[in-house]
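Supplementary Methods. Inverse-folding protocol.

Structures were first reduced to a discrete structure-token string of length 81. This string, shown here, constituted the complete conditioning input.
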């Protein structure tokens, strides 16, 4: 849930809040993945859901960094020209 919410906030250009949700999504997703492996198949969808959270978290981090770099480039171009 945190990963998806982070992606939505990232797309709406609320970067700092998106990063604040992406990092916990990655951490919680990793923990959930380890727990799903420990259960060995009792909850097979749990591992897939955990993996989706981790992927959404990393995509959010990447997009937030890219948006920040583009924003800095626009500000630098505005100052220089």
């Amino acid at each position: 849930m945190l990963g998806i919410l982070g992606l939505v906030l990232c797309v709406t250009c609320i970067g700092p809040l998106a990063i604040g949700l992406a990092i916990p999504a990655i951490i919680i997703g990793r923990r959930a993945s380890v727990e799903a492996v420990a259960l060995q198949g009792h909850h097979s969808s749990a591992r897939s859901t955990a993996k989706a959270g981790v992927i959404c978290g990393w995509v959010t981090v990447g997009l937030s960094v890219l948006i920040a770099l583009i924003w800095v480039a626009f500000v630098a171009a505005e100052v220089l020209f």
